[in-house]
Amino acid sequence: MGRSRDNRRRAAAEAVVEAVEGGLAELIPDPDRARAWSLLIDGAPQSHVDLDDPAHLSFEYQRRIGHVIDLAAPPGKPVQAVHLGGGALTLARYTAATRPRSTQQVVERDAALVQLVRRELPLDPGARIRVRSADAREGLAKVPDGWADLIVADVFSGARTPAHLTSTEFLDEVRRALRPGGVYTANLADGPPLAHLRAQIATAAARFAELALIADPAVLRGKRFGNAILVASDSPLPLAELTRRAASDPHPARVEQGAKLMDFTGGATPVTDTSAVASPAPPPSVFR
Fold this sequence. Notes:
Layout lengths: L1 H13 L1 E5 L2 E7 L6 E6 L2 E7 L9 H12 L8 E5 L5 H9 L4 E5 L3 H10 L7 E5 L3 H6 L6 E6 L14 H10 E13 L4 H11 L4 E6 L1 H4 L5 E8 L5 H9 L6 E4 H7 L24
Parallel strand pairs: 5-6, 5-8, 6-7, 8-9
Antiparallel strand pairs: 1-2, 2-3, 3-4, 9-11, 10-11, 10-12
């Protein structure tokens, strides 16, 4: 009990707190890992980074995206990746560690957050990661046609995905930037009655031939608010291996695809720029 209190005191003493464009950023040291930190924005957990082991993914949703990154190309093969939303650059660091010589672009609107992360959690100088401070959709528009093997969307403003990143027009930009057979994956958040998540699946189905959704079964049943990872491509997805990995995680998840995933939409219609709204705000209990 005494050691636990000491750890909490150490974390409080060494935390870095700074105002950024998106709110109050806190970098909290991990008491169990010497050079690991969690990033919070206005109290909402955003990212976890271990500078000594960038291949370590602590947050469950990031582990699930990590599986997608692992299976997007043969093991160790460099990829060209675009990350929409930077946070602490966790997933870009992961890709650089597991796929050396990859070329990556990160688009993060919050320039003050980028400066904080670069200063306190510096990138490996050898990593080919370019960080651009811009709106995600505007930054994506500057990616050359067919450039990306992988596009990762993990964009939240005030714990909500902005409306303009939820539409078919946005996915048209994603498709334009992806090479044929490239993979798109997005972190979606919703709770009962799952109207946002259902509409996002219908929207992706209007633009991609192959879809899968990775989520905790309780989230899929509408029992609680949580994250769901969308995976989309024009080529067949590695569903068997994705399912195996998701099921063997510390927090097991289910992979929905095919007819069951289409049934999950419940008749929802695709979202367009004119009908788009931001994802729902999580209830306060999620971060307690």
